[in-house]
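Late entry, evening session. Most of the bench is empty. Finally got around to the prediction I had been postponing all week. Sequence below, unchanged from the version circulated by S.P.
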Amino acid sequence: MPSAALTANQLNFSGGPGALPEAVLAEVKEAIEAVPGVGLSILGISHRSDWFAGVIAELQANIRTLLGLPDDYQVLFLQGGATQQFSMLPMSLLAGSPTPADYLLTGYWSGKALPEARRQGPVRVVWSGEREGFCRLPRDEELQFANDAPYFHYVSNETVEGLQFHRVPGRDEVPRICDMSSDFLSRSGDYGRFAMIYAHAQKNLGPAGVTVVVLREDLLRDAPDDLPGFLDYRAQIAARSIYNTPPVFAIYVVLLVTRWLLREIGGLAQMEAINRQKAERLYACLDGSEGFYRGHAAVPDRSWMNVAFRLPSPALEARFLAAAKAAGLSGLEGHRSIGGLRASLYNGLSLAAVQRLVEFMEDFRRHQAGRR
């Protein structure tokens, strides 16, 4: 086993902020000195410049291309994280509604969305996994959706518990809204089935500070007229995401990530294949450990992005974390709400990094067996 000395260049398995692709990180380093063709540091370029207007336009086009969406989908770059969307969404679509919005309660983050929605109007929890400890997702036969709901909301990937939908729930007749904060742009899909998608950047897209919102224009036709401008999607659309001073640096890094996805990876189908391979390699390690590593999520609902697991005892988990950090593997602590361990495998984390984690885990297990 490695010594307790901390190694340099730790690999980032944190639940967020996640790792940037190495190629993007190199471009970011250059841009902090001077953006190519501009001559100024990215940290000092005006959000009112023609250059930044071009960044916004290209990034909007890149996201539409990656998702396969037409021009009637607006792409916004907002602030406040997914947490602000928990409020901003129902302010626009639920306030004054005589019928409840449908929500799924599948884990920590979907639970955070509920009280904010209830401030604005009625909410119906279609299904809850709370009594089972959020260890699985609902089956189709357990879901009874309303035909007259103003919208249906769910979280595609529960970062804390390591649960991910591998299908699209809900009725296409009801606006489907999804918090994709931890798996946005990680796999291919029929994204035209969504009326709105939102995701903060610090998992698969870039650094913290910007939230991507993709929404179909007709979703806003009945939104209230008395919303504060900053919290009104229509005002943000009219201002092209520059209603106030936006996080220029974070938005530029997201642009670099989308270029990387398009030009180096080749699109979301190719990114999905890489992410599937990373997840399969790590889950094979768990499943082959004879119970030493125990996954939290039910097998059909396992996340490709966040692998939550336990060891036989808290003391052994503490020993694992210390040894992992010394070996250059950072961020493997589980979320404070459930404890244990968690490895996050976001887009920017390479297959080689996952293989290094697997080799460490197998070596740690053999070492512990030898101590008995």
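Two things to note before I forget:
The chain has two domains: 24-265, 267-371.
The mean pLDDT is 95.
Will write this up properly tomorrow.
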